[in-house]
Write a structure and sequence with these properties.
The longest helix has 18 residues, at about 115-130. This protein is about 35% helix and about 20% strand. The chain is built from 18 helices and 20 strands. Bound molecules: adenosine-5'-diphosphate (ADP).
Length: about 500
């Protein structure tokens, strides 16, 4: 099968969250299943700065858009570590900027994100025609590439080149829909009926890219089975009824872990490697990290780690609300995150109030993220909602016990540890409030003192195989079924 994957991030080149991780590993896993996979990504300035070698595939291509003729090039990344064709759409006006979605100078979203990603979608469709490479499947991800199925079912409807092409949209997070001022709709070059009230791209008086993707994709995937149900009920962020209408074409496929990046036995970022048969390296990681970040080394005290975007979704509010009780108990905590400035300030204030217990770092730091996974005893994810969540799955492999709110992908991967039977891999809380979170943390910290049970719990997680093998197969089967007879 010829599979085109389109997305706005791809780890390690460009990543702001889980989308980058997924698009850094799923294409490779689909290639291993015998597919011809090509990944398309914007050529952001941040990628350019990495000085990767590229080969020009298309020079001087151009597109006629409502705003005028826009030139672009296509570069193929010469990446020895990848068997997948990684194609970069080059246009400096749209992508040669300091930030990805946000302008670091103003800390606000680029005001022309609609135009930027509409251009990206159209350039992908244009470039594969110029290269005469006819995809069987175009797999789009989140709102940034949601316009591809829209263009295919409208402007390109009669284009024979795409006659046999089927589209699949993966929704990584319903909270980000790509909503824009309706006045700018003309810039997308799409039929006006889409933006009429209740049209396929209209929502609450705005242009809605994700709604377009949901309306026009042949199949829709989201990143866990529980989230697939939740988004048809109270987590659909306004698109519940549309998702319900498309329920027969919607399914959940949990993300996989890339163990070539997230495995304590070979992780290059951590202080000492370790594995299930010899856990001594885990202690080294804890001591080294505590020393490095300036927390006292206290082996009997559990270290709680958090690596996250600092946004309301991630439940940081619960930590702030329960701070007094939390930091008066005998724990230590390290937080790594970026995002909401107010949350950063509040966490910084807590860190100064409890200097021996809490350290917080407000940066995007891949190395520190790995070190926190390896050093922590407990990994806390009190998310209000969580489509899949990757860190709980990374935590399993690192023998770091997840304590999570029972929602979305967290509910699908974490099971409550039962000290009687020795089964389970973490701790969950049902109700989204600080007392329930503290109760789950309390169960964890009490068990931490019982070394044999704790080691059993750590090993239960470490034994799991959450690699892409199974999930990539689910995508593959979905694609094959669609190619062999799904309706367009
Ligand atoms: P989301 O996509 O909602 O951000 P996920 O759990 O799916 O959440 O994925 C988050 C990914 O981003 C993980 O790989 C996590 O380690 C990483 N991450 C989040 N914040 C940071 C940060 N400040 N520094 C380094 N990595 C981070």
């Amino acid at each position: 099968m010829k599979i085109l994957i389109a997305g706005s991030e791809m780890s390690p080149l460009v990543k702001t969250g889980g989308l980058g991780d997924v698009l850094g590993s799923l294409p490779e896993a689909l290639h291993k299943l015998g597919n011809d996979v090509r990944m398309f990504l914007p050529y952001y300035r941040t990628i350019n700065k990495l000085k990767h070698k590229t080969q020009t595939i298309l020079s001087e291509a151009s597109l006629r858009l409502p705003s005028g003729t826009i030139e672009y090039q296509v570069e193929l990344l010469l990446n020895k570590n990848s068997s997948v064709g990684q194609f970069l759409i080059v246009n400096d006006i749209y992508f040669g900027r300091e930030g990805i979605y946000f302008d670091p100078a103003t800390n606000s979203e680029y005001s022309d994100n609609d135009e930027r990603y509409a251009f990206f979608c159209r350039a992908i469709l244009d470039s594969v025609q110029r290269q005469n490479w006819q995809p069987d499947i175009i797999h789009v991800n989140d709102w940034h590439t949601s316009l591809i199925p829209v263009y295919l079912k409208t402007n390109e409807k009669k284009n024979k080149f795409f006659e046999a092409t089927r589209t699949v949209l993966t929704i990584h997070n319903m909270a980000y829909q790509g909503r824009f001022d309706k006045e700018r709709f003309e810039l997308l070059g799409l039929p006006h009926e889409l933006i009429k009230v209740s049209g396929a791209m209209e929502g609450s008086g705005q242009t809605n890219f994700l709604k377009g993707g949901i309306s026009f994709s042949d199949k829709i995937v989201t990143v866990s089975q529980t989230y697939a149900k939740e988004i048809q009920n109270d987590q659909g962020c306004g698109l519940e009824s549309l998702l319900k209408k498309r329920a027969n074409d919607l399914c959940g496929i949990i993300n996989g872990v890339d163990y070539s990046v997230w495995d304590p036995a070979k992780d290059k970022h951590i202080f000492a490697n370790y594995q299930i048969s010899n856990l001594s390296g885990k202690k080294v990681n804890k001591i080294e990290l505590l020393n490095e970040i300036g927390l006292p080394v206290r082996n009997q005290v559990p270290l709680i780690g958090l690596v996250t975007r600092l946004v309301e979704q991630k439940g940081i509010g619960l930590i702030l609300q329960s701070a007094q009780k939390l930091f008066e108990s005998d724990i230590q905590m390290v937080v790594l995150g970026t995002g909401d400035k107010k949350l950063e300030q509040e966490l910084a204030a807590l860190a100064s109030k409890y200097p021996d217990k809490l350290k917080a770092f407000f940066e995007f730091n891949e190395v520190l993220a790995h070190q926190i996974e390896a050093a922590s005893d407990i990994f806390l994810m009190p998310s209000l909602f969580e489509p899949c969540g990757l860190n709980q799955m990374y935590s399993f492999k690192y023998g770091t016990v997840p304590v999570v709110h029972k929602v979305g992908g967290l509910a699908d991967t974490v099971t409550e540890f039962d000290p009687e039977t020795g089964e389970g891999n973490g701790f969950l809380f049902d109700k989204f409030d600080s007392d329930s979170m503290l109760a789950a943390l309390n169960r964890a910290t009490l068990l931490y003192q019982k070394k044999r049970s704790w080691t059993k719990l750590m090993k239960n997680g470490m034994k799991l195989d959450l690699s892409w093998n199974k999930s990539a197969r689910s995508y593959h089967d979905l694609f094959i079924n669609l190619v062999n007879g799904g309706d367009k």
